[in-house]
Amino acid sequence: MTEIYPGESLNISYLSPYLKVLGSNYSNGVNFAIGGSKTLPRDVLFALHVQVQEFLFFKDRSLELINQGQETPIDAEGFQNALYTIDIGQNDINALLSNLPYDQVVAKFPPILAEIKYAVQILYDNGSRNFWIHGTGALGCLPQKLSIPRKNYSYLDQNGCLKTYNRAAVAFNAALGSLCDQLNVELKNATVVYTDLFAIKYDLVASHTKYGFDRPLMTCCGYGGPPYNYDLRRSCQSPNATVCTDGSKFVSWDGVHLTEAANAVAAAALLSSAYSRPKLKFYQFCKA
Which of 6, 75, 81, 128 has the smallest C-beta neighbourhood within 10 Å, fewest atoms? Predict the structure, then answer.
């Protein structure tokens, strides 16, 4: 959802999902993201490399239609000037942390990063030049993770978030940021912007009162009540789930995703370029 708000700020319609053929309008862009997708393993349905292949098919088909004299929402120049946003890795890290200690988790990062680099390289080789790559969020502040029973509360930091999860997220983002710096050097005439979503989303919890949030670690939609209102056996979609009366007071919607109010704050921070390297504003990639 955080990725939706930049478009809203520019009065651009929501991106149509690639897999939704009927009723889709691709004139403002295409969303190839799939819920729950990961970078690895490659045989997982809709892994990152599959999404890249779907884009290449979409591009080839669009240009083919142009050559046949038909109109398409985007032409060859549009594909080259488009902004390619990549936000992936959180599901990979979560899966690793559920089974491995911290040191072994970090040791698994290089193949994930290599897969992201490969995706950018393939896009670049096919004409893409503008990339906006997001780091992962504050995984240790997700009610989904906090609700897992633990005997030792020393696992929590001063804001009530899981230290190990956030430590892993910070380590991953540091490596991803370095990769983006490397790509900026290696890819001629390309721009690769790295944005630190961890810092943005952790601030929603650490400075929640500044943004008007009362319950930074409790879901708006969930089951079980305080402190997290999250039950691993009952999701927000379950019949017994409860929904808060004022979502603007909550950071988390369902234990994993942000509320609309929190997304608006996060998107404003993303657009400010304060958390980006290099500090390019989102609108600088938009051409009339």
Answer: 75
Q: What is the dihedral of CA 55, 56, 60, 63, to 10 degrees?
A: 60
Q: Tokens 């240009």, residue?
A: 63
Domain ranges of the chain: 4-206+263-285
Question: Average pLDDT by consecutive 10-residue portion of the chain (288 residues)?
Answer: 50 51 51 71 78 88 81 83 92 92 97 97 97 97 92 84 97 98 98 97 98 97 95 90 96 96 95 93 71
Q: Please count the other Cβ atoms lying within 10 Å of the Cβ belonging to residue 112.
A: 21
Position 192 scores a pLDDT of: 98
Per-residue pLDDT at 21: 47
Q: 275 and 269 in contact (C-beta within 8 Å)?
A: yes
Task: Quote the pLDDT of residue 288.
Answer: 41
Phi-psi region of 160 (alpha: psi -120 to 50; beta: other; left: phi over 0): left
Q: What does residue 4 show for φ and ψ, rounded to 5 degrees? A: -75, -40
Whether the Cβ atoms of residue 142 and residue 219 lie closer than 8 Å to each other = no
pLDDT score for 159: 97
Amino acid 10: pLDDT: 52
Q: Global pTM?
A: 0.87
Cα 269–Cα 235–Cα 87 angle in degrees, nearest 5: 35
Half-sphere exposure of 69 (CA within 13 A, CB side): 0
Alpha helices per DSSP H over the chain: 4-9, 48-67, 76-81, 90-97, 102-107, 109-125, 143-146, 163-186, 197-206, 260-272
Which amino acid is located at 150 in the chain? R
Could you give the CA distance from residue 26 to residue 12 in angstroms, rounded to a whole number? 11
Question: 62: exposed, middle or buried (C-beta count within 10 Å: 0-12, 13-18, 19+)?
Answer: buried
